[in-house]
Amino acid sequence: MPLSQAEQTKFKSLYLQTARQYVSELKENLNQLGTGNTTEDVIDSLHREAHSLTGQSAMMGYQWMNTVPSLMEKIFKARKEKKLELVDDLLARLVEAVNDLEKCLDSIDKSDKEIDLSHSAEILQKFAT
Amino acid sequence: MKILLVEDDTFFREFYSSKLREKSITVETAADGDEGLSKIQAFLPDLVLLDIIMPKKDGFDVLKEMAGMQLLPKIPVLVFSTLGQENDVEKARKLGARGYVNKSFFDFDKLYARILELSKN
Fold it and tell me: B106–A56: do the CB atoms touch at under 8 Å?
């Protein structure tokens, strides 16, 4: 179950701080992939960052901040298991999705409301299945 | 009661530490498997809450090393999982974990009841 309103308010600042850190790390590691550095360490980090963002967003009750990283987590897990290749088109989509997550966090910060990330979710869903 | 929370995510670490301390539980934390293993030996908790996906050593590595040190029969481990980690939970059970808690689906009463049950045994 999501947190109570009082707990959500109490932990919102910590959520935003840690979520922004994960988004920043996702960006940095996707950039590494873009420059050809596809070591398993980078893939492991991307998987962990998407996983952590998914979990804490679910707990805070944020729908899109849960859904989009969850799809990313599936994509990175499939790559870890060598079931999927991170081709240029997919990398570009992942970068766009991370930029959307950043905007969504800004919106949560300012108005306590998420922006609609259904477009990113639909695109990533095609790769995550 | 003493609980060690091994969790790389700062949000979950802070949140659950705070909730457990409200119940007068002594909580120690570790941010990865390596630190977790050191603190298990130094702190000797009554129970370990263990994340699976962590840097350095993951939760599976921690369970394997705890088993190697004969610590698993004495110190119960509850896996701290999220939705979609059913296979991970099953693997952890086979390595000696006593159960799991979905850390994203917050139900502190259920978690606390499970902690009391395991610590009595």
Answer: no
